Amino acid sequence: xxxxxxxxxxxxxxxxxxxxxxxxxxxxxxxxxxxxxxxxxxxxxxxxxxxxxxxxxxxxxxxxxxxxxxxxxxxxxxxxxxxxxxxxxxxxxxxxxxxxxxxxxxxxxxxxxxxxxxxxxxxxxxxxxxxxxxx
Length: 135
Ligand code: ATP
Fold this sequence. Notes:
Layout: E1 4-10, E2 13-20, E3 22-27, E4 30-35, E5 41-44, E6 47-54, E7 57-65, E8 68-72, E9 75-79, E10 83-85, H1 91-107, H2 111-132
Parallel strand pairs: 1-9
Antiparallel strand pairs: 1-2, 3-4, 3-6, 5-8, 6-7, 7-10, 8-9
Helix pairs in contact: 1-2
Adenosine-5'-triphosphate binds near residues 84, 88, 120 and 127.
């Protein structure tokens, strides 16, 4: 299969810049699979995992906290507020963030806190799953 360049960019810098045959990401509209020659597109992403697959094998697994995926000819760019490769996730930190968010959701103060805690919980669970390869 033909390869193309994919890069993942956050406000902290470049998380990944490589070539792949397939990018799989969780768009707001559902799971999205991008191969070479895909029509140019911009899709908002959910908090979820991005996988790169080449030769039928998963070569990278990245936790992405929302953002956008842009398809241009021979190039996919993911712009996200935060993104971590599986191996650079601090699992203990993510588990602690998950515990804190669950506690805040139980405390249920107001809608703003609730929404924030829900998003923090999603980010934490996504990181835990990506770190453990549990997907
Ligand atoms: P925490 O409460 O642990 O800070 P958070 O979801 O609020 O988690 P973010 O605001 O999404 O954190 O991210 C802030 C920065 O910290 C980003 O650069 C992100 O990549 C990094 N980061 C957050 N959690 C982890 C983690 N478990 N392992 C590695 N990097 C992380």
